[in-house]
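Format notes (please read before filing issues)

Several people have asked whether sequences and structure tokens are stored in separate files. They are not. Every record keeps both together, in the order shown below: the sequence lines, then the token lines. Line labels are part of the format and must not be stripped during preprocessing.
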Amino acid sequence: MILTLNDVHVRYGSAMALKGISLAMEEGSIITLLGANGAGKTTTVKTISGIVAPHSGSIEYCGEKINGLPVEKIAKLRITLVPEGRQLFTDLTVKENLLMGAVSRKEKAKIGEDMGWVFSLFPRLHDRVKQYAGTLSGGEQQMLAIGRALMAKPRLLLLDEPSLGLAPFLVKEIFETLRTIHERKVSILLVEQNMTMALKLAQYAYIMELGTIVISGRSDELLQNDRIKKAYLSYDV
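Then the structure lines:
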């Protein structure tokens, strides 16, 4: 397993945000973490990436415990987060943002080659390479956020709501790009509210409610489950 969470609890003050969640992820897979706002999805990926410290439980990456490590050490393990809201350096250019993604890399010689790959995934970024990130459209900013994460050469890519606020045609484009990224053997943990599209992309899914995992299973099976469709998929767009 590339990632294992075992009975992870997270508190924000006196409030319990995660109430003993456990999940496992095979290397080279795509899993999706689904649920409504406030379910605990963002807290989960922030905890994996070290931004939030768990109150109890364990997080293992490639068999080694990582909870308690600082964010920069977790990043050097090639765990990379594309955060909700993108969080770009808006006063830097597209190229400068991409280079920021590679700042912790040791093998500098291949940075240009990897930037070329990012531009092949997102040709619009190449067209705007000298443009400030803050002047890009929402879809272009999401492309840049994903591209910046890829510049770190992630082994495990965490994405928090990459489709949020995007037009349907851009959502489709982003999801197709994730398929291409996965073909390079990148493991992907996808947090999404668009459950139907996420289930069609992922092999396995976990559905969260109020800090707990209430349902898990193979994505294709969940897509065909009438109870799941009625409870969780009826409001997808």
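For reference, the curators noted about this record: The beta strands are 3-12, 15-25, 30-34, 56-61, 64-65, 79-82, 156-160, 187-192, 204-209, 212-218. The first strand starts at residue 3 and ends at 12.
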